[in-house]
Every structure is written in C-alpha cells, then in structure tokens.
Design a protein that fits this description.
Blueprint (H helix, E strand, L loop, with lengths): L1 H38 L7 H23 L7 H4 L4 H36 L11 H5 L1 H26 L4 H6 L1
Helix pairs in contact: 1-2, 1-6, 2-6, 4-6
Length: about 170
Amino acid sequence: MELLKKFNTKINRILCVVMVICFICMVILVFTQVICRYALNDALSWSEELASYFFHWATFLGASVAFYENTHISVSYFVNHVPSLRCRALLLCVADLCCLWFLGMYIDKGFEVCRLVFSFGETATSMPWLPMGVIQLAIPLASVFMALNVLSHLLQHLHSLVCGAQNPAEVKAA
C-alpha cells in the first residue's frame, strides 16, 4: 500500500508539471492568436485548435490529480452520517469498486478508439503533422492514472474495513 502511495505521489507530481506546461502553452497560444489577429490582421489557423488540445490533456490529467487529492465532487452526507466506521468503509469500498469498473471500461475502450484512430491515420485539421490518436490518448492514459489513485483509496478503505479505523495512522497510534 505504501509503495503504491509513493508511486502515485511521484506520478501526480509529474502530472501537475505537465498540466502547468499545458496551461502555459495555452496562454501563449491564445495570446499569440490575439496579437496576430488584432495587431497584425493575420489570424493563425492552427493556434486555437492546438490550445484546445492542450486544454483537453490538462482536463483529463487534472481529473486524475483530483482523484489523488480526493477533491472530486461527491455527495458525502449519507456516508458521513453512518455511525460505524466499518460500514462507512464498506460503502467507500463499493464506491471505489464502481469507479474502478467505470475506469476499466474507459481504459479498455479508450485504447481501442486510439488504436482505430491511429490506424485510420487521421490528423488534426490545421496541423497535418499531429495525429489525432495523440489527442485521443489523453482519455485512456489519464484513466490509468485515475485507476491507480482509486486503487490506493480502495486499499485504505479496505484497511479501515478490516481494522475499524479511518486511516492507517489511527491504527498505528492506537
């Protein structure tokens, strides 16, 4: 469990750096587009499309980091009002398993779609050097990272289910 936590921490730090790079590139592209369009009267045909692809990647990688930080929107009212820690852990385990099942479908079908898009040889509309498969790869790849983060949460919840504590630190302190 600790090894997976350390791995996820390193991966999510890398993902945060990649997201920052994506946002910086988006800002530079949009700023350049505005300058070219209004100051030079010559719009770039590719900058808006490329900025949207950076946004696409940043969004899916950000969703993975949100899983790691446990900051996704959730309805926790019911779970928080369950008096037993073990029952609460059981509910969270069920939720984690549902997430893993859903992400498993995203991973499986996402890589299948990417393979098809690569086999068709599709490229971006205004950038013939950019394969669309690279853009589509954001979904299954981010889903793999999300699944690793959910798996880490599942292991913590299973530990709580077995030990009756909310997190492993409570067990060590007791």
